[in-house]
Q: What sequence folds into this?
């Protein structure tokens, strides 16, 4: 389960200071605008069920929902495989969606797509429960050789390199999700 990571405010300030800013607040705003337009074009007539993947989806999903001006429902899934660390392990389910999925058009929203095991598990779960269709949206896509074969998000805000990133919903060991930019951690801070 969740690893306890004790970090002081001074240590976190150091992580932020050493990190490299990849996408600033304006770039995130523009990416969310694009995502909103693209999702609207495809899903506006489907009365979708929008599922946020806790915890990282909180920030991008809230901001994205303001840009979706059509009927939709909101629910959440809590699944995690990083457990406040910087290395992915097995997918652990903490909460499944309570809204019936049968015949629903589902939009799964997350902060980042990395190796893709999280999305693979969530998409399969939605389809097993009878969803009519499943689309995926991420603020940040991190293409990498370890990606689950054939897996790609339908809607992508920004691309990030193969480094450990945080901000805009993404955590650094449980912290810094509330930073309004996307940073790559200094390699020395990755462990
Ligand atoms: O594509 P993958 O390699 O599966 O990784 C992507 C997942 O990793 C992060 O979640 P995490 O498990 O860290 O939980 P969190 O949402 O609480 O940060 C992120 O929010 C995605 O859900
Ligand atoms: N915060 C964060 N979570 C992730 N989950 C998968 N990759 C990442 C990453 O680079 N940063």
A:
């Amino acid at each position: 389960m969740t690893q306890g990571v004790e970090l002081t405010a001074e240590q976190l300030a150091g992580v932020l200071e050493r990190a490299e800013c990849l996408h600033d607040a304006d770039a995130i705003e523009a990416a969310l605008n694009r995502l909103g337009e693209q999702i609207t074009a495809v899903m506006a007539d489907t009365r979708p069920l929008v599922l946020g993947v806790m915890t990282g989806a909180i920030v991008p999903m809230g901001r994205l929902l303001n840009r979706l001006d059509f009927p939709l429902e909101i629910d959440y899934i809590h699944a995690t495989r990083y457990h406040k660390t910087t290395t992915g392990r097995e997918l652990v389910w903490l909460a499944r969606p309570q809204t019936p999925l049968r015949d629903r058009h589902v939009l799964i929203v997350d902060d980042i797509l990395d190796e893709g095991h999280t999305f693979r598990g969530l998409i399969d779960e939605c389809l097993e429960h009878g969803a009519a269709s499943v689309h995926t949206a991420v603020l940040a896509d991190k293409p990498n050789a370890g990606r689950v074969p054939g897996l790609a998000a339908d809607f992508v805000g920004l691309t990030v390199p193969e480094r450990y990133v945080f901000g805009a919903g993404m955590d650094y060991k449980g912290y810094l999700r509330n930073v309004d930019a996307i940073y790559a951690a200094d390699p020395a801070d990755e462990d």
Notes: The longest strand covers residues 105-113. The beta strands are 20-23, 49-54, 73-80, 92-95, 105-113, 133-141, 155-159, 165-166, 182-184. The domain at 20-82+106-184 is CATH 3.40.50.2020 (Rossmann fold). The chain has a mean pLDDT of 94.
